[in-house]
Structures
1.
Amino acid sequence: MNPEERLQRYAELAVRVGANVQSGQPVGVWAHVDQAPVARAIARESYRAGAGTVFVHYRDNHIRRAAIELGPTEQLGTSPEHVIDWVRRFDEGPTAFIQLSGDPEPTLFADLDQELVGKSEPLDFRRAWIPHVANRAVNWTIVAAPTEGWAQTVFGEPDLDRLWQAVATATRLDAPDPVAAWQEHIATLKARAAALDERGFDAVRFRGPGTDLTVGLLRDSRWLCATFTTRDGVEHLPNIPTEEIFTSPDWRRTEGVVRSTYPLAVSGTVVNDLEVRFENGRIVDLRASSGEEVLQHQLETDEQAHFLGEVALVDGTSAVKRTGLVFRDTLFDENASCHIAYGNGLPMTVDGTDGKGPDELLERGVNVSGAHTDFMIGGVEVEVDGLTSSGEAVPLLRADVWQLQS
Amino acid sequence: MNPEERLQRYAELAVRVGANVQSGQPVGVWAHVDQAPVARAIARESYRAGAGTVFVHYRDNHIRRAAIELGPTEQLGTSPEHVIDWVRRFDEGPTAFIQLSGDPEPTLFADLDQELVGKSEPLDFRRAWIPHVANRAVNWTIVAAPTEGWAQTVFGEPDLDRLWQAVATATRLDAPDPVAAWQEHIATLKARAAALDERGFDAVRFRGPGTDLTVGLLRDSRWLCATFTTRDGVEHLPNIPTEEIFTSPDWRRTEGVVRSTYPLAVSGTVVNDLEVRFENGRIVDLRASSGEEVLQHQLETDEQAHFLGEVALVDGTSAVKRTGLVFRDTLFDENASCHIAYGNGLPMTVDGTDGKGPDELLERGVNVSGAHTDFMIGGVEVEVDGLTSSGEAVPLLRADVWQLQS
């Protein structure tokens, strides 16, 4: 597969399977400046799929760096009003939204005051976006765009072609028929989710080096995976790749300690050796050997940022895991390993929450926050059990091999 | 001067002398994706100058190309609503606006249907912008950003450093003290404008190969140059470089034929061998050996697009002219040579037009249009005279040497 063909197939996957762009829809693409080649291929494929208009919003972390270093502190983290307005109105149309992941310069902010870096996160953008997810208003996807900068981060050298090969493996682009490969993979994930739902576990327990964590589940939650369906009936694949089966835990019932098993790239900084302790659901201690301040600042977003919003299971057959790489990008790394996220929960995993406000969601056990940060806690050394309401432990993962059969 | 120092001095010129960014102002930058290095330097310098926020709006002609080739025709030329809204509200704040010129790929659309290329021009963006100029609401500047793509166009090879050297010459960046050099240059231009105003010519006549054109002037117009002052009293330099003395002609009184003396880069196409004939002020014939369709489409913007909005005089001492280059960028090439523009006029050159509406401006002889395209008509072979109301011809330029003394 030559590079042009690969890019074209990748764009097809993003547009046709990922966002599933509908005829006449406006399409919004959110990309770093360095990701222009992928954004352009996606724009072309979107028009081929019948898009009415395509707008690429290019962001540039160097401009953000300028603001952190030289701008007035009180303006940090505020996006221009017209950009927020653009996002807020995605449900008109609606706009199909494609976000490009894979930070071209993940350590760009590493030498800066980390408190200011945290303050500079565009939380208002996230706040405008989150309701569309909760309301299933928009068909969307996140895919990554290989760049030399990202390759430098992964391999220590700007080997763009090698990164493209790894991404092709992780996204099944190297399968003879990628779309068919995705259909088969989605069926496998859905069978596992159904098996979990059938058992109706009360909690999930993770045990491994530095980890002994119990995450309480909700009685009326379901395990979801792979595809979402909008309220207009458009099925889309929000993450490419996706290997996880996930749900919204009971934010009030997380207990214990957990050590992350992958570095976490966030806000231009890489967080290493993250350790978190929960009591009565709340994060009471968080530390890391690097990048801790950025996470501390995220926790300050609001009180509910201290509670879990997501728990997700991933086994060793993961196509991301098979690459053997740490991508230093959450979209990929979270799909190589079990993970949890503090911050906003996932109402679509809990029955009867459609259209409910924050108070009712919290009352139902679904967390509500302006933050949502995933971190990876799985691996061959981590045992995962489902706990029944009577206290029985049922193996879910051993040595990264899926145990539960439907 | 090493490249970093040069870029830094260039950003200073754009921010401090060009837009003259004021403390606390929001700053908007309009740049091509490939111009990111210059946009970033300008963002940093803007913050140093006290900017409240800096937003860089990156545009990408490859996305526009995708729309022309593959998108629905009826959507061409429409910008996203939120972008227009951003521009429309520049007068709140007000926003200091810095536009980067120097198309990184001026022939990107050359192989496309030129009628569609014309339709894809973001005229709505221009329509939202023009009132801010007319109302003197915003301090703004246009500066160019050297890129390998532009260097390829100028030199036939992507010699970025050579283009930077040429731009440094054309913008007086190579002077020991560029700011002082600009002050002196501005004083020279102002003296010439004053001499022209003193004579109160009735018309300007251009004669040369393929050219015999008389442009009628307004009784109460003035010749302007170099700096504008906003209604808030902020003096700024709208073009860097600028070598021209210009005014708004009487749109009803242009007669004759004119042949352009430079290629004209517009909308991803280069227009060559442009010839235009005027009768009773109106363009009755326009032809070119390449790119004609794009200009024809511009003329269709509205009826008044067929009439002149600007006439400008430039002599051979121009720093742009001294480079001996054709930059294939109007910002530079128009400052190497006398030029005229069809389309929107310049009310600020005519006394008593502040705040007047379109009808009144037209009545006063100032053109009003959604279009404004400059093309170059001067050179050593073109003689320029000022015509008095009694019909006397006073030499203004001979062999590109300025003749009129104050």
2.
Amino acid sequence: MIEINVKTSYRQQMIDITGDLDRVVKNSGVEDGVVVIFNPHTTGAVTINEGADPAVREDILEILSKQYPVSSKYRHMEGNSDAHIKAAIIGSDRTVILKDRKLVLGTWQKVFFCEFDGPRTRKIYIKIIPG
Amino acid sequence: MIEINVKTSYRQQMIDITGDLDRVVKNSGVEDGVVVIFNPHTTGAVTINEGADPAVREDILEILSKQYPVSSKYRHMEGNSDAHIKAAIIGSDRTVILKDRKLVLGTWQKVFFCEFDGPRTRKIYIKIIPG
Amino acid sequence: MIEINVKTSYRQQMIDITGDLDRVVKNSGVEDGVVVIFNPHTTGAVTINEGADPAVREDILEILSKQYPVSSKYRHMEGNSDAHIKAAIIGSDRTVILKDRKLVLGTWQKVFFCEFDGPRTRKIYIKIIPG
């Protein structure tokens, strides 16, 4: 298992971690298999979406914020229940196929860590299963 | 493949299955790899979120119910389309990393079966891939 | 890694790909393990839900469209930010258990490719990990 660190700068942010994943995959020497990307934080998530136009990320975060606004009406007293629900909806983990020592992503796809309660320093765990 | 049973008591409920998963992992004797947790029900899901404060679970379920209320306007005549959409949004399966015979979860993370059309007796399938 | 093609006919559509997956699994000769189903498109997704009543799919797509309508207010200028957010919410990939040369799905479950910005010709990548 490999661990990477991500430093977020805002309350909500999508950070492209594809370059880190490429490096981890290259260093592993594994040719084929799958790569599991796991977020261990309850107010963070992992998603795969468009990387070319940063406006897509801004739209995704803004839409989520409108649907799930910060509110004082939640039972959880830490004031971040909106972040927990966003984390549940986007999901904690993704699995990507590894082929010829490369992550198999679509033309426009990048892998993002989603911060929903930053800024914080976050970890992502990566596990490569050869096969 | 190992099967565990979960008995739910309400229409909507998040049940912590981390203890069951720990037991399955321990009994398997597998040191390292990944664990796939699969929900075979179309009105259930699997999520990973905070386990310490039960209010987080209550907030998540309440927010989902407000966004996707029970309604008689749906085409599906069984009256549980809200449960099907919640299942699609949260997701049927999660993959967790296994290291040194233990599930690698974050400090506050627990694995939950999500019931959206209970009470029922439900199954969860678990598959460990060594690697 | 195996690639299958899916041709969609509408802007939004859920296409049952379970038959394709069954064929891929059978041809592989693998008895046990897991099957990763990966969508390489940023306006598509993979979900597992009810296949028996087509009304469930219609309800899911209609609910998503009401929650995330097409809008000219988004920053992304291609006019399909609603499709990107739907893709993020449903998810790019699913992992299903393989047992005795068969996908282990629940009685009512089918695997669907979700089109959110069609009609298009789409690809799905499938990777079987024995174990």
